[in-house]
């Protein structure tokens, strides 16, 4: 992971995104989500950081982190490779899962802090995956003040639990550090995966990588003909955008 200058936060709080390479889908099943959360928990004491909020999406992860004595970059360098090693063994693959450099933005005001927390919890809603933060399993929203991963006391010192929940449910036009993969297409990711399965017999991106080139190309062409967008096809199959574009009918 290359060294990149990152502006310091006056509150020592950072909004971090780990994004998959080529925007491909990483988290395929419940075990994948739970493993990443387990690794986060495992490194909290060792790396001396506090977690204010999180949301694990299929293609990326949002974290709101307060580092301790260990710098943020070194924390990410421990969490990310451990998950990648486990994931590659599970899916019989090799190589990187996440982009070589993580995204981060400092939090420099209480107002910004509240905005980022709400933005993280509403990420699945804005991506069209659910209608409320209550409906998404893999964010810190549902068990915010009881989840052992989350430092709920930090937010409780600023707002009551009732007001916190109400604030996080409010409709808004918040814009924060993010990745350009919010679904804006005629079919959902789940429908795109079903199409991939129907045309190729592959249920996830890892299986799709083992297809013969001709079969992979034919499947991508059929998916695009069925209304899957170029970026969406790249994301759910793990094939680069440039190669997917060559399969346009």
Distance between the termini: 37 Å
Kindly state the mean pLDDT as a whole number?
A: 88
Coarse morphology = globular
Total of helices: 11
E-strand count: 4
Strand content: 5-15%
- The strand order across the widest sheet is 2-3-1-4
**Computed CA radius of gyration, to the nearest angstrom:** 19 Å
What class would the helix/strand composition place it in?
Answer: alpha+beta
Low-confidence stretches: 1-5, 179-185
User: What's the helix-strand series?
Assistant: EHEEHEHHHHHHHHH
The name of the CATH superfamily of the largest domain reads Transposase IS200-like
Largest sheet: 4 strands, antiparallel
Quaternary status: single chain
The count of domains is: 2
Helix content: 40-55%
CATH topology of the largest domain: Alpha-Beta Plaits
Write the layout of secondary structure elements.
Elements: E1 13-19, H1 30-47, E2 49-56, E3 60-67, H2 72-91, E4 103-107, H3 110-121, H4 123-126, H5 152-156, H6 161-169, H7 189-200, H8 205-208, H9 213-225, H10 230-237, H11 241-245
Antiparallel strand pairs: 1-3, 1-4, 2-3
Helix pairs in contact: 1-2, 7-9, 7-10
């Amino acid at each position: 992971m290359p060294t990149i200058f990152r502006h310091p936060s006056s509150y020592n709080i950072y909004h971090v995104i780990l994004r998959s390479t080529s925007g491909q889908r990483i988290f395929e099943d419940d075990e994948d989500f739970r493993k990443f959360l387990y690794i986060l928990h495992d490194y909290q004491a060792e790396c001396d950081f506090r977690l204010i909020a999180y949301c694990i999406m299929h293609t990326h992860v949002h974290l709101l982190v307060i580092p301790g004595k260990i710098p943020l970059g070194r924390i990410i360098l421990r969490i990310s490779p451990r998950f990648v090693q486990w994931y590659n063994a599970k899916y019989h693959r090799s190589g990187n899962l996440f982009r070589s450099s993580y995204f981060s933005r400092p939090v420099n005001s209480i107002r910004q802090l509240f905005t980022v927390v709400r933005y993280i919890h509403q990420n699945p809603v804005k991506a069209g995956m659910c209608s409320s933060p209550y409906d998404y399993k893999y964010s810190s929203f549902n068990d915010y003040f009881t989840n052992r991963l989350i430092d709920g006391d930090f937010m409780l010192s600023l707002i009551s639990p009732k007001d916190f929940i109400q604030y996080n449910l409010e409709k808004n036009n918040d814009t924060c550090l993010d990745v350009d993969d919010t679904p804006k297409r005629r079919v959902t990711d789940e429908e795109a995966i079903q199409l991939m399965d129907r045309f190729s017999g592959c249920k996830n991106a890892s299986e799709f990588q083992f297809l013969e080139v001709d079969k992979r190309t034919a499947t991508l062409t059929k998916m695009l003909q069925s209304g899957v967008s170029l970026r969406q096809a790249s994301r759910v199959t793990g094939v680069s955008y440039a190669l997917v574009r060559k399969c346009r009918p």
